[in-house]
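ugh ok fine here u go
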Amino acid sequence: MAMTCYVLQNLIFSVLFYDVGLGLVGKLPAEWNTWGTLAVYVGVALFLVFGSGLWLRRFSRGP
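structure:
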């Protein structure tokens, strides 16, 4: 489960922030880069923790 969350976290951040996906780094004002990135990170982390809990209720191991 830990490896799945690690891979998903990196994939989500690649899609959101880099040129491969939405490219939010270039769209955010410079003064919002630190706090915006932190807010998105906390949101993604909470999503993965919540999703992991749901997965582990149903299955004994992660994917």
